[in-house]
Amino acid sequence: MNEPELRLSTAAVAFLFISALFGAAFASGQEILKFFGSYGGIGKWGILLTTLLFMAFGQMTLRLSYEKQSQRLEDVISPVDHPLVKGFVSLVTGFCLVVIYIALMAAASVLFYEQLGIPRWTGGLLVGSLVMVTTIVGFEGISRIIPLVTPLMLILTLGACVLILAVTRPGPMGDYEAFQSPLAPNWIGAAMIYVAYNFIGAVPFLNTVACATALSTNARRGALIGAAGLGAAAFLLYSTLMSDLGQAGLYELPMIYLAGKIAPACRILYSVILMIAIYCASVNALYGATKNAGKGNRKKRIAAILLTGFGGYIVSLFGFSNVISYIFPIQGYFCIALLLCILISYVRWKISKKPEKPEAAFKENILETREKDDTIIN
Q1: What are the counts of helices (DSSP H) followed by strands (DSSP E) for the chain?
Q2: Domain range for residue 117?
Q3: DSSP string of 138-149, one letter each residue
Q4: Helix 264-289 and helix 139-167, axial crossing angle in degrees, nearest 10
Q5: Element housing 205 (H / E)
Q6: Number of domains comprising the chain
Q7: What is the arithmetic mean of pLDDT over 312-341?
Q8: Do 34 and 179 touch, CB atoms closer than 8 A?
Q9: Which one of 18, 168, 219, 273 is least enclosed by Cβ atoms within 10 Å?
Q10: Which of 83, 41, 104, 114 is nearest to 286 (CA)?
Q11: How confident is the model at residue 45 (pLDDT cuts 50, 70, 90)?
Q12: Residue 133 lies in a domain
């Protein structure tokens, strides 16, 4: 194992898992709007489906990571030991993680521009620089920082949703279908794409957690609690957005608009929440994309982090909403292939570990007994 053995509590694992998925696109409401709110009342079933899938794939990834004892994601995800398949898995995984990072940098740019009037290019650059420094520190440092800030992020987000629902008057529903992504044809497809591109961001951390904690009970339980907590947060955000979808859907950061309906101070507070979410998820994505870069050479790894970090920031100037609507679904289809690889790998592992039939075990015991008897006689 490349990572030192760590003692992580159930809560720490849960918060690490949530932070990998609870990014700015989620907390801003833009993801929930595009993939669940845009399907009206049936969107809540999509949230339930995604929660169950996060739970299932979280457990599969933990088990595969522990059994294969590899820090290389292509070794864990690939269902066959073939260089071409592993090369494809490695390429797609890296691409998906970089896209997540790009979207988060774009969200930072929008947030700084809309709330502080700072030029768009400045916000992404500031946040990206902080994320790159944190990523260079490594997993041990990240595992101490993220569990401290994630609870604050969750409490503030859920508290804001409850306040919006309790204090503000419901607004017009509007044409919710107008907010659908053109690449997500129905609520089931949208849920699958959502799970696919989001879960890939959690794979590097689940892999490290499984190896560094020897797949402890805390790791398995924490992943389940993290997935359930994320599902609960998604449902509350969905309910909040549906209370005024007609107006909230017109903004790139719809939850900022809804928080502003309570008071200007609430809008500022929710901006802080988004900034924390951007930071946490960006660290996860950049760490995963550069986890095995440099092949043990620290200078090469740092160079890869800086190159990926600054390169992703430049691409992020394309725009947050455009990334969510077009690049994320395209990425999602690639990530579905990766989820299928994880599923096939897990099924193959289960089959290989299948216990022998009682008859076969009985015959084997008889043969062993006879061999021992013959040895004694001779």
Answers
A1: 18, 0
A2: 10-377
A3: -HHHHHHHHHHH
A4: 150
A5: helix 203-212
A6: 1
A7: 75
A8: yes
A9: 168
A10: 104
A11: very high
A12: yes
